[in-house]
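Q: Hi! First time doing this. I have a protein sequence and I read that you can turn it into a structure. Is that right? Here it is:
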Amino acid sequence: MRLALLLTMIAAIGLIAVACSSDDAEPTSAPSGGDAATPATQAPEATKAPDATKAPAKDDDGDKEISREDTLVITFFGPGATQIEDPENMNPYSLGGLGRVRGILNKTIFEFLYLYNHNTGEQIPWLAESYTVSDDFLSVDVTLRSGVEWSDGEAFSSDDVKFTIDTLLGNDDLVFAGDIQEWVKDVVITDDTNFTINLNKPNPRFFYFYFVENSEIHLPILAQHAWEGQDPLEWNNFDLEKGYPLGTGPFQLVQATGQAQVFDRNDDWWANKVGFQDLPEPLRVTYIPPGGADTMAARMINNEFDVGSIMQPGVFLAANKRNPDVVSWSLEGPSYGAADACLYTLGVNTAYGVMSDVHVRRAIQAAIDRQQIVDLAYEGSTVTQVVPYSTYGGLTAYQNKQAALIEQYNPGLHSQDLVDSEMALAGWAKNGDGMWAKDGETLTTDVEVPGWLKPMGPVVEKQLRDAGFDITFALHDPDSAPLFEKVRTGNADMWILVHCGSSAEPHGTLQHYHSKFASPSQGEQNSYIWGNSQYNNPEYDAIIDEMDSILPSPDDPKYMALADEALELFLSDVIEITLAEERHVITFNTSYWTGWANTGDPYVAPYSLWAGFLLEFLNITKAN
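A: Yes, that's right. Below is the predicted 3D structure, encoded as structure tokens:
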């Protein structure tokens, strides 16, 4: 425990002079690499790379230079990358398409039918003006906004939406094809701006999930006149001479290399022409790899990045001390990060192995001290949580309604007495070494931990060992693929991961414990990356199946009754152990651009991966 605390203190205070950190402490959503620590007497020299402000442009003047003051420089969400992989691939649906879209394309090239403010739950009509879900939840009528154009001047229409959905229906190997094939029967066009999506089965959340809110699955529309006749699995949608990639967004690609993707403002952007939005102030957007965590922090201090990667709280405070223009989402600490609809969790295999005994799972949960994990692993920068709900306002209303149920089961109770009683019920007793054993065999297993969640590993291990469990945390760094393979096939007993789910209602996350997401048998991969508990309970499935067809409301007795039944099974069966909310410290620099969303002006969530981050691009103004 002292070692974990010491490492945390080093991360927090040892870098005040250098404003950089060991990558070992980065709570990123992907493995991070790193550079050697910079000497304490100097920060890395700023490198105003030419590709940040100069790029070939499609105009009569040939190459054009745009000043740093007119350029918005954004880097990857998580540090570690030193180059852009496959920089000329602009296909949003071929292998890796989600990463490309979430990296930079959803803020420059692609726009969406709706945007969403996770902080308030506001649905923001964008390419579409409205949608109506039918009473039987089997269809959705959509009206598009008039005057929308592709970047080549061609009209955006219902044909493009139908073409996109039909492409996913007809190509099994495209990203999200399986989702669309499960739900969509067909698309029927009424006219250029009106169409109906018919579904295979009732789903009141379909349009909301795929076209409004979803930060993980937000479907970009393809330009039919460019994509028709192309192989959607192979075409990279890249030809600068032809103006590809085509999009409806406010920027156009002008350069793509492994070191930078550069986008210049489209002054003929449809939204400005029809009076829907003003042109963004930045004339150029440059997307640059961050390098290691220390390099990224130093470059933020040197005003080279306007949108930086995530930082540990101590590193952020050090950077802010060196350069007050480096700011975060939260105006006051200690939690400088923002909610992201994900929870830090201790996963347990409910179907196979030693954790399949509910008494053992209850004992494991009672051995956990959540506040200690938050304090030691993440410097007190987030909040503990005992149910799988984010702290977004929409979900808080439901959790408040379920407060008595949660208190009844008291999942946050840290108690050795409870550990002892539950293990006794499971038939275990402590051996001469003080470890739980049965029939002469000690309960020995690993907690699988990815590199990007490494700070929690030693803390959880120590807590479980103190409670009598012979547990070791097994680190998967930098490659998390073996961890996910082990977890998703039911071959892991316990693991530390994030569980990402709903930002608006309990169903969005509670559904992930439905048996349809479990492995068909041990050794076979499950069907959803966060549905790893291998839980199989027909009673629970029936509850979720009924919730599927009910519109959510904390004031609807029927919905709340089902939500209570599902949560009660979650708590009594300890399907998963929720530890704390994942809150990344998102960093911005106000030296060149101001007006970033923050807790004082939460006009959109600050996550640069999400489609709504376009609103940041449109809201910021020049600092000078």
